[in-house]
Amino acid sequence: MGKSRGGRRRQAGAEAVVERVDGGLAELIPDRDRARAWTLLIDGAPQSHVDLDDPAYLSFEYQRRLGHVIDLVAPPGRPVHAVHLGGGALTLARYVAATRPRSTQQVVERDAPLVQLVRRELPLDAGSRVRVRSVDAREGLAKVPDGWADLVIADVFSGARTPAHLTSTEFLDEVRRALKPGGAYAANLADGPPLVHLRGQIATAAARFEELALVADPAVLRGKRFGNAVLVASDHPLPVAELTRRAASDPHPGRVEHGRTLTDFTGGAVPVTDTAAVASPAPPASVFR
Predict the structure, then answer these.
(1) Which of 74, 82, 204, 227 is 20 to 30 Å apart from 152, CA to CA?
(2) Is the dihedral of CA 200, 278, 149, 22 positive or negative?
(3) Would you report the helix, strand and coil content of the chain in percent, each value rounded to 5?
């Protein structure tokens, strides 16, 4: 379905961009309904959606849920220090820049050719104060100064799977080191029945953070289908009531679990360590049809 680096093709009257990057075949597909909006796909799997005219518009449901976390991590409009592990089309970095002007952000995206493609075709606004490092996510996180970040967001996929070394207690020790007191960690997790990976990730976060919340489609939580869940963790109380209200009012309503209900959901899963970590499960082919 692709051409060589730099190849372009026409779709629905707009020009799509197709290039080979380290992670596979990248496609930037124009949105037929929004004049300067694009969807990024890697090997056919949707990764990000960006509206250059309205960076605060979040199309993907999991990104909307991460957007709620961004909105609630500090009073409205206050600049924050944010670390994004996984860059994609820089959707969430653009969202922070648009909703919290003067924020300082670090994006860690290992795929340098993807970063070059996105920056060329979907340029960041001047003065957005976003620095991008093209290194492994954990290596980049290790370079973040102690106590620098108000928010760390992990949204890292390689071949549609989260790498094993980003699923462990040792990884979360690095996250905690980088966070300010009261800062928050949010992770995009993907799993399907029987939800072994998701339960293990909740148990892992519970071993390192005092407060947890999980936002997901009810069908995913019931183990009825493969999908995304957003895990939020902090050592300070989370804005669970407001997060619940926002998730419930989304176009695809999400459910928030926390407290004893979330603990019970883990079903006795144990924390994951580096020595036992495995990548998240690959999604079934039907997910992207």
Answers:
(1) 227
(2) negative
(3) 30, 30, 40
